[in-house]
From TrEMBL:
It comes from bioreactor metagenome. It holds the Pfam family GlcNAc_2-epim. Its EC number is 5.1.3.11. GO terms for biological process: carbohydrate metabolic process. It is an enzyme of class 5 (isomerase). Belongs to the N-acylglucosamine 2-epimerase family. The keyword Cell membrane does not apply. This is Cellobiose 2-epimerase. Keywords: Isomerase. GO terms for molecular function: cellobiose epimerase activity. The lineage of its organism: unclassified sequences, metagenomes, ecological metagenomes.
């Protein structure tokens, strides 16, 4: 329920999504690059570790798209209508360029 007691509108309200995490990595690294904020750097390390430990399939080189709130794979598909081959390589490339 939301703060007004209504059910959530978004279907993925309780999920952790691959694209949100990769975009967060980019944002935190850019924040560090532009400001030198140690807090941004520390958060980027935390998000990096979580993302690589939870989203990356250890057997096949692709990321899971959807995790539950406990960080467990929710859907074992790695591609579909919404999860394609855009966010992960683009995001990793941008992180690499910043570093």
């Amino acid at each position: 329920m939301d703060r007004e007691g209504f059910p959530p509108q978004q279907l993925e309200w309780d999920q952790k999504l691959w694209w949100v995490h990769v975009e967060t990595l980019i944002s935190l690294l850019k924040g560090y690059q532009l400001t030198g904020s140690e807090e941004s750097l520390q958060w980027s390390k935390k998000v990096h570790d979580y993302t690589w430990n939870r989203f990356k399939d250890p057997e096949y080189p692709e990321w899971w798209g959807y995790l539950n709130r406990r960080g467990e794979v929710l859907l074992d598909l790695k591609g579909g209508k919404w999860k394609g081959c855009f966010h992960v390589p683009r995001g990793l490339y941008q992180c690499w360029m910043i570093l």
